[in-house]
Amino acid sequence: SAVISQKPSRDICQRGTSLTIQCQVDSQVTMMFWYRQQPGQSLTLIATANQGSEATYESGFVIDKFPISRPNLTFSTLTVSNMSPEDSSIYLCSVKEVLSGANVLTFGAGSRLTVL
Amino acid sequence: DQQVKQNSPSLSVQEGRISILNCDYTNSMFDYFLWYKKYPAEGPTFLISISSIKDKNEDGRFTVFLNKSAKHLSLHIVPSQPGDSAVYFCAGNTGKLIFGQGTTLQVKP
């Protein structure tokens, strides 16, 4: 399956600042997906990043808060803007693959952000 | 509206015994379901899936059962091993994955 690298793996951020998370995949993929896991919560899809077009955001997530770039078929970034403590979460990058005959998501290790 | 629910936040099982993780859903449009396992500081990894037209899928020690009339699925791990200790997420697919909150499984030696 695809190997996904995320940077940073963790960071502590100050309120009001922004942080960009990078996601690198070892193969070319059409779509990349950004998820958030808040403490004790499920994984929630933030947006789908397609190469060459604007990202598609899920309800409750907006481009001004979570701008996404997708410059090529192996790389994407997610920026968490003007952070508040409520943004403290694990942010996960993922790609869709066919494994065992099913369309599944393969995830990176995640980026754990703590906002003070 | 939580379409996928895992009502047990945690489960503790003795090594060698069966672990049963449960998941309920409300969306009848899910065409298949998946289970993921997550270790600390790692991303979730795919474990097993089941199509909505099946009622059982088995892969080694892992079996997933689907009861469509009850909108319920379960993951059975037999025999449980200490290395199975992790957070388990179920998810339903409608073109995108909707995840439950996860169940933390602890397998005691």
Set down the secondary structure blueprint.
The complex is a heterodimer of chains A (116) and B (109).
Chain A: E1 4-7, E2 10-13, E3 19-25, E4 31-37, E5 43-50, E6 56-57, E7 68-72, E8 75-80, E9 89-99, E10 102-107, E11 111-115
Chain B: E1 4-5, E2 10-14, E3 19-25, E4 32-38, E5 45-51, E6 56-59, E7 62-67, E8 72-77, E9 86-93, E10 97-99, E11 103-108
Parallel strand pairs in B: 2-11
Antiparallel strand pairs in B: 1-3, 3-8, 4-5, 4-9, 6-7, 7-8, 9-10, 9-11
Description:
The complex is a heterodimer of chains A (116) and B (109). Chain A is 0% helix and 56% strand. By secondary structure, chain A is mainly beta. Chain A has a domain at 15-95: Immunoglobulins (Immunoglobulin-like, Sandwich), CATH 2.60.40.10. Chain A is globular. In chain A, 34% of the residues are buried. The mean pLDDT of chain A is 93. Chain B is built from no helices and eleven strands. By secondary structure, chain B is an all-beta fold. In chain B, the strands form two sheets. In chain B, strands 2, 4, 5, 9, 10 and 11 form a six-stranded mixed β-sheet that branches. In chain B, strands 1-3-8-7-6 form a five-stranded antiparallel β-sheet, with no helix packed on it. Chain B has strands at residues 4-5, 10-14, 19-25, 32-38, 45-51, 56-59, 62-67, 72-77, 86-93, 97-99, 103-108. Chain B has one domain (4-108): Immunoglobulin-like. The chains are: A mainly beta (116), B mainly beta (109).
Brief overview:
Chain A has 116 residues and is mostly beta strands. In chain A, 0% of the residues lie in helices and 56% in strands.
